[in-house]
Amino acid sequence: MNLLMSKLLIGMISILTFVACAPKVLYDDPKKVETLTISFSSTDLQIISQAMVDSILKSVIANDENKPIIVIEELKNKTSEYIDTSVITDSIRAKLSQSGLIQFGVNIDELEGQISEIDRQQDEYYDENLSVEKGKLAGADYRLSGSLISIDKFKKKLLKTKKDKFYKLSLQLWNIKTGVLVWADEKDIRKTEG
């Protein structure tokens, strides 16, 4: 019996030690500046997307009474790291949409799903008066494209390494009908470590 009690006691102590040493998870302000590394961060995302939204809303197209329709292409990631650039375009789209001044058309990545839904509604199970007709998608007035680049530098000095990372987001807005560039802007971010 003593052996069994000893094993149970050791087991309980082990469990309590593990639980006590487990890291605590806390919620934090998502707007708080993140400085854990010099890699692309949530702070960088917020800075560059807000800068581009502010610039677009000051441009000629935001003053168009007809609420222009924009399609957004996937940004080219020309950085040295994996960055899901759709997070940048999704943030820009959400903020511009909230302005109420701009509308968004179906981009190439979403087109297959849109066509599939329209085709599905043509089925005999749907009320034809409430179904979407084929050929009614709105064409976009403008196409937003761009790229994110990074330049990485480092310098070793004795036992220390100084790192420098530079990011540039470049966006262009093209008139689809005329092929004319109607707006372009860039946002730079530099981060150092060491």
In short:
With 194 residues, the protein is α/β, with parallel strands linked by helices.
Describe this entry's structure for a reader:
This protein has 194 residues and is α/β, with parallel strands linked by helices. It folds into two domains: 30-105 and 140-193, ABC-type transport auxiliary lipoprotein component (Rossmann fold); 110-137, no CATH class. The chain has helices spanning 2-21, 42-57, 86-99, 108-121, and strands at 69-72, 76-78, 103-104, 142-157, 160-175, 181-193. Strands 1, 2, 3, 4, 5 and 6 form a six-stranded mixed sheet that branches. A hairpin with a 5-residue loop joins strand 5 and strand 6. The longest helix is centred in the first third of the chain and has 20 residues, at 2-21. The chain is flat, with a radius of gyration of 26 Å. 14% of the residues are buried. The model has no long low-confidence stretch (mean pLDDT 86).
Topology diagram in text:
Blueprint lengths: L1 H20 L20 H16 L11 E4 L3 E3 L7 H14 L3 E2 L3 H14 L20 E16 L2 E16 L5 E13 L1
Parallel strand pairs: 1-3, 1-4, 2-4
Antiparallel strand pairs: 4-5, 5-6
Helix pairs in contact: 2-3
Can you tag this structure with a few keywords?
single chain, 194 residues, alpha/beta, Rossmann fold, 6-stranded mixed sheet, 28% strand, flat
Radius of gyration, rounded?
26 Å
Structural class: alpha/beta
- How many DSSP H or I helices? 4
Share of residues in helices: 25-40%
Low-confidence stretches: none
Main beta sheet: strand number and arrangement?
A: 6 strands, mixed
CATH architecture of the largest domain: 3-Layer(aba) Sandwich
DSSP strand tally: 6
Gross morphology is: flat
> What's the CATH topology label of the largest domain?
Rossmann fold
CATH superfamily of the largest domain: ABC-type transport auxiliary lipoprotein component
Distance between the termini: 59 Å
At the first level of CATH, the class of the largest domain is Alpha Beta
